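User: Okay, second chain of the day. Same drill as before: sequence in, structure tokens out.
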Amino acid sequence: MASSHSSSPVPRPGGGGRGRIYHKEREPSPPRCRPVRSLPDVCPKEPTGEGRGLCDGPSVVAEHDRWTVYSSKVNLPAALNDPRLAKRESDFFTKTWGLDFAETEVMASFYLPNITREHFGPYMQEMAQRERIHERCKTICPNKDDVDAVSSVTTNHDKSRAELDQVPKIFMKPEFALEDPATFNAVLPWSHFNSAGGKSSRDVASSKLLQEKLSHYLDVVEVSIARQISLRSEAFFHAMSSQHELQDRLQETQRAVAVLRGRTAAIDRVMCQGPLQALRTALTRNNCVKLHNKLKLMAAVHQTQPTVQLLLSTSEFVGALELIATTKEVLQQELQGIHSFRHLGSQLCELEKLIDKMMVEDFSMYARSDLNRSLKDEPQVLEKERLASLVFGLLRQRKLDFLDIYNDEMITAAKAIVAQCVAESVLHIEEIDTEVVTKLADQMRLMTFPQWFELLKNIFESFLLFLQRIKATLNVIRNVVLEVLDSNQKSPVLEEADSDAPGQESFQVPQLLQGEAELAYLTHEGLFISDALNEAQQQQQQRAVQDQSSATGPSIQQDRTEPDCTSGPRESASREQSFMSGENMMPSELELNRVLNNIQELLYTASDVSHDRCVKVLTARAKDGSLERLSSAEFVCLSQAVDGFVRDTEELCGRRSVSLRGALQSQANRFVHRFHEERKTKLSLLLDNERWKQAEVPAEFQNLVNSIADGRITLPERKAQGPDEKKPTEFLFVNGQKYAVVGTVLLLIRIFLEYCQCVHDIPSIATDMLTRLSDLLKHFNSRSCQLVLGAGALQVVGLKTITTKNLALASRCLQLVVLYIPIIRAHFETKLQPKQFSVLRHFDHITKDYNDHIAEISAKLVAIMDSLFEKVLSKYEVKAPMPSSCFRTVCKQMAKMHEAISELLPEEQTQMLFLRINASFKMHLKRQLARLGVINDGGPQHGLVVVDVAFYTENVQALKSLERLDLNMAEIWEQKR
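Assistant: Same drill. Structure tokens below.
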């Protein structure tokens, strides 16, 4: 037994039995005196991912003097005495010490197939027959060694059993204890001994027998124990040798671990401690920088309210709102949960509501001061930066109804403009007492037309300046809205670009710089917000340039760890965009487009308001009918001024307002009515006083006709008569023809030129004026017909009779009017719209009426001679002397007729008229000759008639312009059948 404790190998019994282990002989190792040391724990704690985890867990490098059994993850006695194992593992003393020493569940390999019983199915079917034969053979012929061993074991077991049965059962009980008196008395029966105290021979023999008996029991037990030890000696010695081998291997492992620890300690000292210290220092520095930035951020947030108050004192509403929004974002993201800032969020919300009210009030004050200041002040836009800031702030807070405020102030300012212009005009008019006449309308009605017209032009000029100022202001507002809309459209593009960018840029920028722009924004140190942002942007650009220059150098890794580096131009641009646009708070694209439409509508409304105020001025003046009593020149001036104002406003605002044009059209209709009634009344008076005698033509009218011939359908300016002024002429020369006219026709020409001039100056009244001019021409035609053909002039003027000269003069006047009707039509046609050309048919009807009237006058002249011929020739007798008195009378009347009309009518009309008179004469003569029965038979009566006819022919052809007139007197004779 003593030899089993040495490290020398134990001789193994020969034989080739299964399950035996053979070991190689080796030299016994010399004894070594080494202190017993516990094994270190080679299972460090799991890494936590934090910086301090670098030194908290156990290390394979440093020695651990304070290691205890409780630090071990695997305990050898616990593994040896594991009650869960029915049999100890065969490789227990050869396994590697460590975490895997105890049994653990091993995950199946992913590279090995999952083998099931079905995979062995074909093999089992193939070997089943052989296995049955083998089992049968084993049963029939058992192994000799197994039989011997079994028989020897059985014999030994039975023998030892019989020997052990000799030992009393009391010694085998688990509760056997000699301390128990009952047990002691049962083992040592002292009752067999003499109790007298003496020692007899019998007692000595009994004690010896008892001693031998107990010795026999002891020998039986020892023999049984020795027999059991001999049966298990091989396993015992195998365990002892394995234990010695394990101790040798542990000593070798300890030496290898000591060498490894020495080398690892050197590696740790040379290569690890310095870099690890650098990493710890960098981590500590980063943590300190984060803490410092966080404290600076808290300090900046702490200064938010005073900074907001400072910004509000300078009306920097946008900056204050941006500061509040940024502070809210910082509170939610960076400083959430800080107890000292728990009420700051609600305070900022209340402050934001207060800023909303202040912005609305400030915008109202701005609009009021901008619209009510002097119109001649420069510049057009008052405090452009302040307006842009207000609009941006209102848009950011979604206060989209600020245009309604501007609209109300605009209407109030428009009323004030009219009142101011009237007050300034009244100051220069001494006739108007403002204390007595307090109303503006009454004051305007007391003005003369030149004074009122000057006031109206001042109002027009003021409103044009007013609209220019409004347009400039709205342009500033529109530009702000367009910038916001453009930024809203660009922000998704920037977000997509940031999302598409590779992630390798992100590690270049530490997270502690994400709030750098916010910090620069918050701690602007008394600067305005725009200056602070510009300064932060410049710093970011400089840092981006530094990053680009250092990207190619060897220090790029160091630059990546520096806390002062920036995130590149793209990230800074997107951050600046988010600050400047307030994209999270800004209205949507649809709302911004609606605001743009409202801005345009507001400009249209400004134009309409200006026109409405001017309409008020017009209606106030026209209330007593003063505008209807204007002269044509004055009304033309008024119309031109209104048209000019309407054109200017339309060009300025891009919209055609109809209220002022409608008011002017209404006044124009009244003016046209009065204008026409005045001239119609004047024409009626002239016709009623016309004596239908040829009038002299002043040079003024001749010049007027000449200008019409030159294509100028306008009234020339009247010139003062000088000493070299031409004298009046007897005839009016038009296109080389002379017209004998009455004075009424001369004035009629001037009247319809006034109509044409009025239409030229006021094209909007063309249709109404054309209708009135048609009525005037019809009135002249009908009235002249009543006076001349109807002989009304006998009663109206007191003429004794209507002579042929009167008739010829009236015909010539009508012809002159007919000559100018196409010219008037062409002039009106240029002023009408194509859809209005249908009203030109009035001129066709008038021309037909005038031609019918002229034809009636010609027929009247013929009828006069016809009645004369009938009266004279009814008394005609064919007898001497010749020429007869009837023919003398006829020739005399013909001469008078020619004398009356030859100077009035042109030669062609005179010849045509006398041809018709001659036809009438031949008809009556033929009728008389037929009554007298005179025929062209060459008799005496025929000869007398021929003499009279020759006298008639000679006298007629002797008249001026009738020399070549073919009288064809042969028609007086009846043709022979």
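The CA atoms of residues 390 and 877 lie 116 Å apart.

User: Thanks, on to the next one.
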